[in-house]
Design goal:
The protein is mostly helical. It is built from nine helices and no strands. 63% of the residues lie in helices and 0% in strands. The chain starts with 7 loop residues before the first helix and ends with a helix.
């Protein structure tokens, strides 16, 4: 147990930094997923810990069949273009898992890749939001656990520190649908 409790300001800065870091990781996971490098295992332990997020992933992916066309088609340059098209960016060094400026496995042009994204732009934005929300949720949960453990406090006592996150409005319909589905099961 810590002799001096964290100040609310320090905890808020820890939350902001964790969310910022996880946002960057989420963008990498998004690019890795659409390029086929990363898969979502809907039966994993992680899926059981974050069922709302995995439900959201599943629903968005079901409505975006063009994702499979992007597998093995994305290099660092194309990933940066895709993120820019979606209104965000990430440091190219963080996309090092992609082969930088090397031709992908087929002869699909960069413009054709962008056209695939533009055709389902809203779904790709939703998918990016879902990855970001998922990583933010993990960061907030881990920070709550860290503060509780280090200070030796209860769930009620940790509420004073206001460790929270805001769910994007774009994902609200999925979350409401999941909650409604769970209520119907009971």
């Amino acid at each position: 147990m810590s002799a001096v409790p964290y100040s609310k300001r320090k905890v808020n800065m820890m939350r902001v930094n964790a969310i910022r870091k996880e946002g960057s990781i989420a963008k990498n996971l998004f690019i890795a997923f659409i390029s086929g490098v990363h898969i979502l295992d809907f039966d994993s332990e992680d899926a059981k810990k974050y069922p709302i997020d995995y439900y959201t992933f599943k629903k968005i992916i079901e409505n975006t069949p063009s994702i499979e066309k992007l597998h093995d088609q994305i290099n660092t340059y194309r990933a940066a273009q895709i993120l820019e098209l979606l209104g965000t960016s990430v440091d190219n060094k963080k996309l090092s898992f992609l082969t930088a400026h090397k031709d992908p496995l087929s002869n699909t042009s960069a413009q054709e890749i962008l056209d695939i994204i533009k055709a389902d732009l809203n779904n790709y934005k939703l998918l990016l939001d879902a990855f970001i929300c998922y990583r933010h949720r993990k960061a907030v949960r881990n920070l709550r656990l860290k503060v509780k453990k280090e200070l030796g406090i209860t769930n009620e006592e940790v509420k004073v520190y206001k460790i929270y996150m805001k769910i994007p409005d774009s994902l609200r319909p999925f979350i409401n649908s999941y909650k409604k589905q769970q209520q119907e099961k009971q």
